[in-house]
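Handout, section B. The chain below has 71 residues.
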Amino acid sequence: SEDKLKEKILDSSQHPFDLAVGSVVRMSLFSRTPTTHVLLLVVHCIASDTWGLLLLLDELLTLYHQLKSNT
């Protein structure tokens, strides 16, 4: 259900980073339906700034639109 999906996304986004042993970037893919998904990207502030995140978002959107137009 949508409520369960929201709960999973919220839980995943609030999981703390352990900078001593882990990555500073996490990506998770959640299935809404067999053909619809939600990509969650969580980045620690030590790994990027606003400009870098906007650039990454632009690249992801470009790739998404290219892939979507090929289907």
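Note. The longest helix spans residues 50-69. Compare this with the example in section A.
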